[in-house]
Amino acid sequence: MRRAQAAIVALTAGALALTACSSGAKQGAADDQSRKDAEKMRGQIAFADAAASKGPAAPIPGATPGGTIKVYQRDTYAHLDPAQLYVSDQGSLSTLLFRRLTAFNLDNKGKYNVVGDLATDSGQKSDGGKTWTYKLKDGVKFEDGKPITSTDLRHTFERQFADFITSGPTYVQRWLADSNSTAGYRKLLPGGPYGGKHLPKSVLDTPDDKTIVFHFKKPVGDLPYALALAGYGVVEKAKDTKEKYDKAPVASGPYKIQPGSFKNGKGITLVKNTQWDPNTDISRHQYADKFDIQFSVSYIDSTQRLMADNTDNQTAISFNNQVDAASLQRVANDPKIKARSTSGYQPYVGVMNFNMRRLKDKRIREAIAYAMPIQSVLDAYGTPGGGELAGSYISPTLTGYKNIDPYGKLKNPLGDVAKAKAILKKAGKLGMKLTYAHNTAVEPLKYSVAVADNLKKAGFDVQNKELPSDTYYDIIGKTDNQFDVYPSAWGADWPSALTVLPPVYDGRQIQDGGTNYALYNSPETNKEIDRISQETDPKKAAADWFTLGEKILKDDLPQIPTFYYKQVQLHGSKIGGAVNNNILSAIDPTKLYVKK
Amino acid sequence: MFQENSARGHFAMTSPSQTAVTKTDTPGLGPDSATSKKGKNGALAGRSPGQLMWARFKRDRTGVISAFIVLSFFALGAFAPLISKFYGKDPWTRYGQTTPGLLVNQYPAGPNGGISSDFWFGLEPGLGRDVFMQLLYGIRNTLGLAVAVTIVSVLTAIVLGVAAGYFGGRTDYFIGRLIDLLMAFPNQLFYVAFVPVVTAIFVAPEDEIPFWMRCTILILVLWFLGWMSLARLLRGQVLSLREREFIEAAKISGASPWRIIRRELVPNVMTPILVQTTYMLPNFVTSIAGLSFLGVGLVEPTPDWGRMFANAADYYHNDITYLFFPGVAMVLFIVAFNLLGDSVRDAFDPKRAR
Amino acid sequence: MLRFLVRRSLGAIVILLLISAFTFFLFFAAPRDPALLACGRNCGPDALAIIHKNMGLDQPVPVQYWHFMAGIFTGRDFAQGPCPAPCFGYSFATGDAVWNTIVDRFPITLSLTIGAAAVFLFVGLATGMLAAWKQGTLLDKLFSSASLVLSSMQIYFIGPIVLTLLVYNTNLLGQPKYVPITEDPVGWFMGLLIPWCVLSIIFTAQYTRMARSAMIEQLQEEHVRTARAKGMSAATVFFRYAWRGSLIPIVTIFGIDLGTLFGGAMITEVTFALPGLGTLSIESVLRTDLPTVMGVMLFAATFIILFNIIVDAAYALIDPRVRLA
């Protein structure tokens, strides 16, 4: 009998061996389309006037109404309260649900501009940019049929000051309060409007039902961009339930949440909002009857399902799931699947931070920079299509971008260990202890093996520290953190370097929980930041920002860039209108329809 | 644990149905099964129970082959550094990344996971390390941990089980309730939940966790819920041995309890200890691998058997070869160990031979 | 019998209390601030303090434990709203009521377990008894060897292989997924077919081995041999008497297996990306989401203890020789 067992073992092993045969990998074709799209986007986002903000949106050629679109999402939406929305998956959702004063509009030709959404235009500036006036369109309503008035918008902005709003953008609040810190702006209206207090007329004024006026202390050039952020979606004052609004918000866009359909880890269903009037909206459509969104579908899962494209998945899509890193090469090599993909840049630039308070000697930072295997970092995010090796702090999607490579990283992306070692030797620091911290997400775990390996070979005594991924940024955001090198990524909130350089390189903003992770403080840079922030000519400002970024990189080296994030997404064969939206850095959800 | 049902062996014994259930995987107990006694009585002239067992075991060809396979795994693990020297590669170098042409878009350029005369088991997708070396060192680390957990658990089981059985009364009661309590823990969830928690208690978030500390924590957590079934079994055995004449005789002759336990009781329960150990060890191996699969085991760059499965979960759609070697090695090891366990049991208890 | 049930239930409550205390205090010994999770990007010290207060984290740990335990029976009031009994609090990570999450996820684990259990119990018993009936024949050897190899398989190894063979390479079946049986019974069945089979492969093999040896043991029992000696045919003895006796230990173990599986089959759920209790527990562990971990831990432990009691009670009912002391 035992002999039979041996035979079965052998048989099973044989069967397994057969399944294990596979062919080798193929070189995928490079994707240049996204580069062209990004170039098209740079420097052409205009603020639209009333005529260009008038609805309805031009129909998508060939689009038909009806049908249900299935949506696979990895993460449950952490928030539904518009004021708490910020990250990209929430951005996609809020496009369908909530209207704001302004909106980014991507037209059928691939051009972007900022249009009036609830407002009639992208905003009227006066007083040298210190005062901005918005008039509401006629016929804009909440899902319950109540008209949207200036009272609702006043409330929308005033509740941003409440303590329970912690996850949304803070630009407008900070401009209104003329405050630079995360805690400071709340002093303008402590606790928000719930105690019956309001912002004074000298800050936010609503002279009539249709008019909202912002008064700032300093000129603000980028307000129409900022107001288009998901976090400034309108909230109905009469229905505001404070913390509980996060579970049941009132929609104003073409879709609303089917009551009771939101289940953490499982899904949410969006149905048509019949109160939404297409004639008031230039940037959205309402083709599908329903979006059936499922959560907890991993990138691998959604990729496998959408690649299979069987009956279940032909009308499926994902707003924000990307093709998982391991499957990118298959998508690139299979023309049938590739035809069902969209791709583009994300605003993020990955960097390795050098703790400027601990690594004061620039030679050491140079040694680390030379040793850094940026190709391995990028590989962890998948090739081809997961990203592009970076030479600068500023992403190719931003106006003013130029291709630079001061440390030869693009030529030697696996790291020049010999050169690093030579520099370190010259500095007399061979064998110095270096603490490299990273979080425990899949990709950092992978590339950190290569990073630590290279640094070790370059002559450092590397201490490899793993930090929990959910609180990673809180830990490295401490000003007294005990790490020397740690990765982070920063993305522009709108296509202007104003949302990149000041938050990351302004030394006066160093604080616990701040975003100057390298703790970089140079009076010269700070002064330059102040100067360019006041610059009114957007073209000149863009060029100056880029020059400043290049100078910081060359002279001070607080971070070494690793790669520009990109994403590839798939959709089912019966989905129409699938285009990448560079502002959402994802597929554009309002243009989707079900092919008949 | 991560055979989803490993908790069962333990719980079976919490029930009054004990004997009926445990019959399937433990040697029979009670007055007629103390095989070793027969040897002492001279019924089988002049051979020690160990010799008898060994003689029976040698005749069992499957047992011998399984033992050979199991031992080769341990040998492979133990001599991994030596093999690495002969093979000319190590488990840490990223061959695929540093040598152009081996990996294309992260995947091995050659067919079948890049198997070649240079890389016997192919290359790891992504980092391009040598799969053969990764597996060998992974086996080394996993088996090392499993042996450590087994030793600690068996020692704990002997101490607590024999104490409960021999002293009875309050000692027995408290140990019994402790076992009841620990057996009610959902053990999978416990392992997964407490590895990170225990780690966080011992290590400040800013510090690197030393390798030995990770190992200690894994051993600690697995040990915590790993010793009860054997302890309960030993308690039962000792309970029945306690009433036997030779113990009575030892007591009357004035031997101390410690001496009785050491010289009379423990040698008489060596059989179930040995048999249970051969079942425990492979269970710990799969548990350790399961923890790594779920992301709470050993971490990079330490090569680890179970983590290879977690990596493979990302890559198997495009490179199933990478899953193949650790998987087959695992199945082979567990099958061999189970067969060995059966043979050891049969050798100790010939009446039960099928 | 009643006394037995009362005594065991009291014991069970004590054990659950101890488990909850152990989990609670060990988690709080870990120096991680769960409030950081709930606090957003713009989290200042003020906002953090508010969250601490909302979560009750500003109180001493024993008080927090008391509130937590009391909440299970009486419900609690949180900033997010009232949390009716049984209240396990709100998740630190998602802000959902833990009990609702468990109730939501449990059907998935339940479906997975029941389906797999049906497969492995039926197939395991059938093959095991057949092997015992045909003891020593080729069939017996085949079943026994297959069960040996299969029981040594790991889900994270065969799961991907089965998926590759049946789903990705051939498209014979769809990706495993969970659809509520009330919505679409066929979809429910097809979606869980692969996980059932893979999960039950290991169990089936063990039940085959168990059923076989229990059956063989029964055939050597005195009453069976007596029946045989009285002239009954082998088949009659086998199907009328022996199988009943051999069921007892198997039913026992089956009950215990079910109890364990109801707490979440972690590896299977992770391998097939099914969002059941197992996936929930690993998610919440990695996010230091104490209320959810506590909830799942107690939920799973309750099942284990419950099924142990059921098994013991059932055993006493079946076998008069066992007395419930």
UniProtKB/TrEMBL annotation, chain A:
GO molecular function, one term: peptide transmembrane transporter activity
UniProt-listed GO biological process terms: peptide transport
One Gene Ontology cellular component annotation held by this UniProt entry: periplasmic space
Domain of life: Bacteria
Signal peptide coordinates: 1-25
UniProt key word Signal: yes
Pfam families: SBP_bac_5 (PF00496)
Domain Solute-binding protein family: 114-509
Swiss-Prot/TrEMBL keywords: Signal
PANTHER family, A to Z: ABC TRANSPORTER SUBSTRATE-BINDING PROTEIN (PTHR30290:SF83), PERIPLASMIC BINDING COMPONENT OF ABC TRANSPORTER (PTHR30290)
Protein name, entry field: ABC transporter
TrEMBL record, chain C:
Pfam families per record: BPD_transp_1, BPD_transp_1_N
Entry annotated with the keyword Secreted: no
Bilayer disposition of the protein: Multi-pass membrane protein
Lineage: Bacteria, Bacillati, Actinomycetota, Actinomycetes, Kitasatosporales
Transmembrane segments: 12-30, 108-133, 145-168, 188-208, 247-274, 294-318
Keywords: Cell membrane, Membrane, Transmembrane, Transmembrane helix, Transport
PROSITE patterns: ABC_TM1
One GO term of the biological process aspect: transmembrane transport
Entry protein name: ABC transporter permease
Family recorded in the similarity comment: Belongs to the binding-protein-dependent transport system permease family.
Keyword Membrane tagged: yes
